[in-house]
Design a protein that fits this description.
Blueprint lengths: L1 H15 L10 H5 L8 H10 L3 E26 L2 E26 H6 L3 H4 L21 H13 L9 E15 L2 E3 L7 E25 L5 H29 L1
Antiparallel strand pairs: 1-2, 1-5, 3-5, 4-5
Helix pairs in contact: 1-3, 1-6
Length: 249
């Protein structure tokens, strides 16, 4: 999200002041940004959006299933025929874990306070992860751009319903093995004729992240606090809705 917000800020400045085309291309230029030193047209738009609040609500739901099945067949010879006996046993174990946590941030903090050494060097560059998508690049730029565009030209009203995007990723994996053994009869009074078994393991992971963006409102000295409260309220609503959906499932 940081790189997306920085890029959108740079594009907004260049659009209004083309002479700054070569500016804001390095980490130092962003961290040393002084909004009050920007040209008036650029300063107005940056001041308007620098305190936009971003809230992330993560929900990680993991279920593991282990199952085992075994059976044996016995056959015995009788005077007038044969006698068969089949025995079967099975067991299924299931474990489920759900983890929830949330993170709050702002456009201004992402642009000026999150340096490269804190943001990129601790982890390799992220690309799409098709096995665990939530750990890879999520391409959040388009959501931030949509939010800004709708505020600028679409009269987006977030006073009662903040702009929220929910991403859901489901990963399932399963493996099984089922050996069997068949024996030819030896004519014994009572003998094993067949044995079989199977073992299976499965894992299902449902990862959700709700992203909420809110314009701060109220007096400047209280704007951030009010916006944070609104983000908290919206994330609480998302959490309750997710809990309701899990019960329905």
């Amino acid at each position: 999200m940081r790189d997306a917000v920085r890029d959108l800020m740079r594009q907004a400045i260049i659009r209004r002041n083309k002479e700054l085309y070569n500016k804001f291309t390095t980490d130092a230029e962003f961290t040393n940004l002084k909004v009050d030193k920007l040209p008036e047209k650029s300063r107005e738009v940056i001041e308007r959006y620098q305190n936009v609040l971003i809230g992330y609500e993560f929900n990680l739901d993991v279920t593991e299933t282990n199952a085992a099945l075994g059976s044996v067949d016995f056959v015995g010879a009788l005077t007038r025929g044969t006698f068969g006996l089949g025995l079967t046993a099975s067991a299924t174990l299931e474990r489920n874990g759900v983890e929830n946590f949330r993170v709050l941030d702002s456009f201004g903090r992402l642009v000026t306070l999150v340096r490269d050494r804190e943001y990129c060097e601790r982890a390799p560059p992220r690309t799409k992860n098709y096995v665990y998508p939530i750990t890879g690049a999520l391409e959040l730029r388009r959501y931030a751009q949509t939010f800004l565009s709708m505020n600028q030209s679409g009269n987006l009203d977030t006073s009662k319903t903040p702009y929220t995007v929910t991403l859901k990723f489901t990963t399932s994996a399963k493996n099984s093995v089922g050996p069997s053994l068949g024996l030819n009869p030896l004519g014994e009074p009572f003998e094993l004729s067949k044995a079989s078994g199977s073992v299976s393991n499965g894992r299902s992971e449902v990862h959700k992240v709700a992203i909420t963006l809110v314009m701060p409102t109220g007096p400047s000295e209280r704007a951030l606090t009010i916006a944070e409260q609104r983000v908290e309220d919206e994330l609480n609503n998302v959490r309750l809705q997710q809990a309701f959906e899990r019960r329905r499932e």
